[in-house]
């Protein structure tokens, strides 16, 4: 298989929102400690910087709902908790992407209302419009929205790379198990390996 063309490469940062990765976010009790201990936001920021420098596209996926939650179907405990706690409202500070990964002018922000980034969003249209054929993934949680969005990318025909140290899950075990699965569908590379490949 040929080496990816950096200009036809995008990185999709999955759910780098305060509600997900900050200690006081709705899902912070599950993920914040892992995010901090493994320094995953700093690795994700390095990947985004390298993709921009190589001429690729940086995409951020985020969840946000309208006031009153007319666009939320609470069919899982997590979605029900979002409504009960009045979380992920559009415009709320905790719905923002964390400062270390603040979108830059040429980045694209995709807002969606379900578990994964492609479903019900314009993500595929944006990637195809830029001629992207390879998608790198960073984000939280490796075993949930990262895996789900990567599965969708495979079904849409993209080559996939999960950046192993720029993702995390609620436990190290869940993270490692997900990487083993995702490695059967595409590449699993470290931040250093991705940066080296993009700069080479």
Summarize, please.
This protein is α/β, with parallel strands linked by helices and 200 residues long.
Overview of the structural elements:
With 200 residues, the protein is an alpha/beta fold. It has one domain (6-199): 3-Layer(aba) Sandwich (Rossmann fold), CATH 3.40.50. It has helices at 18-21, 28-38, 40-53, 77-84, 123-129, 142-155, 172-182, 191-199; strands spanning 9-14, 57-63, 108-112, 134-140, 159-168, 187-189. A six-stranded parallel β-sheet has the order 3-2-1-4-5-6, sandwiched between helices.
Cα radius of gyration in angstroms: 16 Å
Order of helices and strands: EHHHEHEHEHEHEH
Structural class: alpha/beta
The CATH architecture can be given as 3-Layer(aba) Sandwich
- Share in β-strands: 15-25%
Number of DSSP helical runs: 8
CATH fourth-tier homologous superfamily? Isochorismatase-like
Report the average pLDDT across residues: 97
- How far is the first residue's CA from the last residue's CA? 17 Å
CATH class: Alpha Beta
Main pleated sheet: 6 strands, parallel
Q: In the residues, how many domains can be counted?
A: 1
Flag low-confidence runs: none
Enumerate the strands of the largest sheet in spatial order, edge to edge or round the barrel. Answer: 3-2-1-4-5-6
**Fraction of residues in helices?**
25-40%
Could you name the CATH topology?
Rossmann fold
What is the count of β-strands? 6
**Which overall shape is indicated by the principal axes computed on the Cα atoms?**
globular
């Amino acid at each position: 298989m040929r080496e990816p063309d950096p200009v036809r490469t995008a990185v999709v940062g999955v759910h780098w929102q305060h509600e997900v990765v900050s200690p006081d976010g709705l899902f912070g009790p599950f993920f914040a400690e892992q995010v901090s201990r493994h320094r995953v936001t700093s690795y994700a920021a390095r990947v985004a910087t390298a993709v921009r420098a190589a001429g690729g596209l940086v995409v951020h996926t985020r969840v946000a709902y309208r006031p009153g939650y007319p666009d939320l179907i609470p069919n899982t405990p997590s979605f029900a908790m979002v409504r009960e706690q009045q979380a992920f409202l559009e415009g709320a500070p905790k719905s923002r992407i964390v400062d270390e990964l603040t979108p830059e002018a040429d980045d694209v922000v995709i807002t969606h209302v379900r578990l994964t980034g492609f479903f019900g969003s314009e993500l595929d249209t944006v990637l195809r419009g830029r001629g992207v054929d390879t998608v790198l993934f960073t984000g939280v949680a490796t075993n949930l929205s990262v895996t789900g969005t990567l599965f969708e990318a495979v079904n849409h025909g993209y080559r996939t790379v999960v950046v192993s140290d720029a993702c995390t899950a609620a436990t190290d075990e869940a993270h490692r198990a997900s990487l083993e699965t995702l490695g059967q569908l595409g590449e699993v590379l470290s931040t250093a390996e991705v940066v080296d490949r993009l700069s080479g």
